[in-house]
Amino acid sequence: MDLATNLQMVTAGLAMGSIYALVALGFVLIFNAVGVVNFAQGEFVMVPAFVAVWLMDVLHLPFPLTYLVTVIFMGVFGIVFQRIAYYPLRNRTFLPVIIATIGVSIFLKNGAQIVFGAEPQLMHRPTPPDVLNLSGVFVDPQYIVIIVCTLGLLVFQYFFFEKTSLGKKMQATAQDKDMARLLGIRVATMIAITFAYSSILGAAAGILVGPIFYVTKEMGGMLGLKAFCSTIVGGFGNVQGAVLGGIFLGVVEVFAAYYVSSAYRDAFAFIILILVLLFRPQGFFGEKIAEKA
Amino acid sequence: MLKVTGIETWYGAIQALKGVSLDVKQGEIVALLGANGAGKSTTIKTITGMLKPAKGTIEFLGQDITGMEAEDIADIGIACVPEGRRIFPGLSVMDNLMLGATPRKNPTKAELDQDLERVFHLFPILKEFKDRLGWQLSGGQQQMLAIGRGLMSHAKLLLLDEPSLGLAPVLVQEVFRVIKQIREAGTTIFLVEQNARMALLIADRGYVLETGRMKLTDTAVKLLANEDMKAHYLGGHTKAITDRRRASRPSA
Amino acid sequence: MTPRNVKPLLGIGLALVVIAFPMLVQSSYWLNLVNLAISFSVACLGLNIVLGYAGQLSLAQASFWGVGAYTSALLTVNYHLPVWLGLPAAFLVAALFGIMLGIPTLKLTGHYLAMATIGFGIILQLILINAIWLTGGSDGIPKIPSPWIGSLELKDPSKFFFVAAIMLILMTWASMRIKDSRVGRAFFAIQGNEMAAETTGVDSTYYKVMAFALSAGYGGVGGWLFAHSGSHYISPDTFSFDQSVMFLAMAVLGGNGSAIGSIVGATLLTLVPEILRFLKDYYMMVYAAGIVIVMIFMPGGIAGLVRTFNISQKLQTWWQASSRAVVQAAHEAGTPAANLLPPVAAAPHGDGTLLTVRGLAKHFGGLKAVDGVDMAVRRGEIQALIGPNGSGKTTIINMLSGLYVPSAGDILLDGGNITGRKPHVITTHGVARTFQNIRLFGELTALDNVMIGQHSRTRTGLFGSVLQGGSQRAEEAAMREKALKVLDFVGLRGQEFAQAKSLPYGRQRVLELARALVSEPKLLLLDEPAAGLNATETEALLDLLFQVRDHGITILLVEHDMSLVMNVSDHITVLNFGKKIAEGNAEAIQKNQEVIDAYLGTEVGNA
Fold this sequence. Notes:
The structure holds three protein chains of three kinds. By secondary structure, chain B is of the alpha/beta class.
């Protein structure tokens, strides 16, 4: 296979991987903060995609305003979600919480169908529709937007968590809620902010991926599951691991679909997941959990 | 300063405290002693608002704080160094210390630096390791960090839960030396300890808790001399049961 | 009325309901739905075994359901085998897939396990779609035959209903029998606390795989019911992740751990959407909102709700009447407690060495928790292991009981090498233990806890648990009797049916001791048995320890309560920083300067 094709596939893989990474980050931030695996994370991508399409098609808002409104909407959405699906169940075992998030996921899928219709919709592209010819390598400009925006968000996130006092308090809350309370940190507020931010990451993913996929009520399902795979492959609960795991799965998936079998495209992420669980359960970047009785 | 009256606290169906009363006066070191499971940590958790008492009241500086949220109790000037240190493992020593200052209202940078210097003066090792992550510290260093973090809030009352637990004897002495210094600098201290002798050597007064009830209270000096205390909590054991042991033993 | 004479009545009633049902309903549409609900119910009964009994979360139940459906459909359509033969095939092939999922995921728990099972399900569905040569691909398999009885084809939903109903009753009956058997108790022990289950003698690997296999087999039978009824057509998109989620929702809605609850949950979630159809487009939203609301407001599912209204409690109490009668009889017989302890070869006091430890070490990364310890425990003695926190006492207990594999050194019990063996094997060899922070099976009764303690001394397997022949019943009765006696011995008479976690702290400690004693140990390891006990309870414990010792059971105990240690111990070993610093009798240890410095402390005036 020639170099140009491979490079094209790397770009596509990185773009897809970036989307997985954004959703995976949303997963990990919520998991670290409250120990809940949110099975509605994929719907955190589907909902903003529909909202953005609606803002553009029905209200005819320009791109920047659409994006801004979508992000704000999803911030509020995250806080409402946490009040409904997490807060009432915060002292319970993980099973009811998982089922509650699954319930919300079904609710959102069918709600989206009622509000926005059953037809797949197309989101307007902020980028020109023609592929770019970069000396023989043909690349969809939207891919480049996806990769650059994801990088930008990651840099923002790094500074937010590592350099601001609010970020530190959120980390402290994630690491030890009781101790954080003893230090006067408003734990409930920190958790609400975490959900809002996780949901905003979903908004970013939805806006970015919308123009290259059809926007449908099912678009979040597989995306959410693969993002969850990314978090485990990278090392569960590890923020860098989630990002790298997502990008790794995105690239591997594109190559495996091309070289191995496109029919099994959706299986590769899970095959890698099971292999990782068997041979390196702590993930690529996870610390080995010390044995303790 | 702190006045606890008749608190009863439950863990689900189990009553851990069955009416505990105690008080701590400004500038004192008061020790709370007792066996494992006697309810010492529960008492601390009830004072800090992590557990809500079913009965009884807690007053701090004349204000009724019974049933207040832990965050709010931290804000009004009670700091806690909990059992097991509870360092944030993924944050640096510096970050851990700075988070300790959360309850303070808009401290200036100069004030914070001054507080940091004070902590580093008490525990020089923390300055050396200020960029290390919490989990990279040894048990003793973590204990020092936990106490240092507790000091950063300028609390009027510092609660220490088992500061000697799991530390080598030489470190225990070090920690107790610092506790005395902290009191000399003006912070009131309420100390929970299993190591009764060490605690009483630095305390002004002591309370002894047994299965959720206050069994004994006195000045530290008198408790150290108390025969019952010697038998149960201070080592130097009696031979009371030895006879029965011999009797029950099958003929050798 | 007693449970015994009500059982046949129940059976007759059930049979009448089954026979009358199709006549009452008549509508093929509703009968087909009921048949579908039964197929879902059987799959949920399976999920209830792996999740509700053994506590392992599986999100692949739709896959096993699909494996069963495809197995039987392919055998009957392509190879024209009789439909009845498809039934055992569906069970076995699905169970095989269950084992295939169970073995690689043994070490996983919680979210990891959930994700691995999801991945398994998605891969399987993709295979169903893409392995066209075998499965027919996304077109699915049409025209699946119905079962025949002689020349009667059971095609009409009112006829197939009898097949479905009989299968449901059989499968429910089997799952309830399993629940209340040695095997079921092993499942619940794993769910309650896997570490404690292992040290109590339960081979958790074996039982976890068994739970997966059983649950998959049930799924397979459910799939068989699905393939040969309704539309007589199957295709890959039915056996999706969403369907697995639905099974989970059904099982949890019904009430985790309850067989009847699973059936109720499955039936409700099959029928409710149909009833909600008048809501048109909104029905799925209402349905989903319903699931969330149930999770928030009904923690225990429907079974839990029934329990809160005390209905099931009363039923259960009544049902247990027969067991209570046994307890009563045992108490009235008034056998002296002293005769009730397991007969251990009554070795004379202080005769030879039972346990020898040589050069034992355990390193965690750079930390040498235990660093080359030699010690011997003499038969029939009480030996104590003391030292400061972090000196390695519990680590040694963990190695002796098999929870940790030593980094170096040997552990010899009665001359046999048990170094690095699995905890349940070591239990079988005659070592039992208790934990510093009590590890009971909190949701189970005191009696069940102690019956699980006999796991390593009993044999009833899966088939025995279902069939319950004479020898199994005799074993069960003997276990129960022995458990009651040991409970009596430790002073828990009258609390046999109390839930373990509801007992006061001190009672929980002795219950854990009873669970250990009943496994007939030669060596009993006690990790801080007096922690949290008040003076009176400690006194009682002291008496108990002497009695146990007098029955010929050797005791090694870790303890901080020095008055207990000094009074009870024949021999004391002192550790500091993972090394042995002293050993001897109480008098010698109390005078040892190094021990005073490291642990016992001195009256230093200038701290």
